[in-house]
Request: fold
Amino acid sequence: MNATRRIAVLTGSRADFGLLRSVMLAIHEHSQLELCTIVTGTHLLQPDRTIDEVAATFTIDCSFEMQQSGEHGRIADAAAFGRGATALAQHLPALNPDVLLVLGDRIEAFASAAAASIAGVRVAHMHGGDRAQGVADEAMRHAISKLAHIHLPATQQSADRLARMGEDATRIHIVGSPAIDDLDSFSRLDDEQFEQLGRPDVVVLMHPVGCEDSVEAQGMRTILKSCANAGNVLVLDPNHDPGRVGIIQAIQDSGLTRASHLPRSTFIALLRRAHLLIGNSSAGLIEAAALGLPAINIGSRQAGREKPASVMDVATPDEAELLQAITTAMQRGTVDIVHPYGNGSTGRRTAVLLADFDPAAHPITKRNTF
Reply:
């Protein structure tokens, strides 16, 4: 192929940017691709304003507001979805991408995939076919898959699910998870930064699952109480899903060391020094597992997703079960695993695929194979 393809990559949060960064770098470095960076979602919210982290590495071609400060809950998310779809549609003529690349299952990806697909722009979707049955995002992930023209699943199981959903096998390309790509570039956190974060033995990262704030707060209080005798604890703020306010309140009430946001480089460097990750983040299943760090996965948020042997499940925030799991995990220590999410080459593989894919095998018009 001689013509340069313009690949628009959309990032809507600190979480997906941490994963997309290696993919964006590979696209930028590929001689037959042109990177177009779109920033939206919680990147624009104060006080963290993580759009600045994106701008530190990439030229931002387009940004637009979706969420609004102070607005929370499902109705607010629905309104944000509408703003996102409308804004991207308005920007598409000027951006003129050949492909829009999105990752995961959040409203930013869903709104953008919907707008682009309707507008006749090919959509490439990373981490499609995964299962995370404990949150509303599960439905959005599969909706994005039905909108997408190029599937970039992380695992064989996810690829198989896409095929069972009726997606054409010629559109499905297993690339692994980009979450593993950059791990080797981050060494252990240095002593000064480690001291500033309270020398944590345990890192807690618990995201809301869409319950009322009071329910989310009660579960988080139980989790944090269970960690009291596990050593030094650092609690990270959750994402901006409904229920966040309750979790933040529980963190504030606990008196434990808190960090509102850590850049990915700091987060990964911290995991290299910690002894345990507790919560319901996919980082426990992917990044922590790749580093050999034991993780306790709480609740249903990651239900159905492949879990390496380094992960222990606790069904609900039950203090007795959590205490037992923490004791077992701390005694187990570092775990060597065969990782189901790839070998760290996802960014490069994705860029090559986007440069070389046959448009005739990935047409705009879609058909179901079932």
Q: What stands out?
A: The longest helix spans residues 74-95.
